[in-house]
Write a structure and sequence with these properties.
117 residues; alpha+beta; Alpha-Beta Plaits; five-stranded antiparallel sheet; 3 helices; elongated
């Protein structure tokens, strides 16, 4: 018997990016190569404020050194795809001397179609 069901999964991303402020923790921190606070200090800060909630990802980019990302986001969306989208948007805004923070909401939409009868 042939399975004639159709399956579709999509994710809609909404990304808000602003300058780094206190309190610093949101969903993402994008750290410039010459930012006043470096990746290791950001990692220690995140561990102090929210233990085990964030992952620091080193980036090979002319202006961006690393991105601190909330672990729950990495569980919802493939890391490579998420970083590609974040990098495309952030590289237009960031200077190598800045740290950007970003709020990221992911809404998953699922649509299924099945054969009746």
């Amino acid at each position: 018997m042939e399975d004639k069901s159709m399956y579709s999964r999509k994710a809609t991303l909404s990304l808000k990016i602003s300058e780094f402020e206190v309190p610093p923790m949101q969903d993402l921190l994008i750290i410039g190569k010459k930012a006043p606070i470096g990746p290791e200090a950001v990692r220690r800060m995140s561990e102090a404020l929210s233990p085990g909630q964030f992952t620091l990802l080193k980036i090979d980019h002319p202006k961006i050194e690393a991105i601190l990302v909330r672990n729950s986001l990495l569980q919802m969306l493939d890391q490579t795809l998420l970083m590609k989208i974040v990098m495309e948007e952030a590289e237009r805004l960031i200077l190598d001397t800045t740290v950007l923070r970003s709020e990221l909401k992911i809404a998953v939409s699922v649509q299924r179609e099945v054969e009746l009868g």
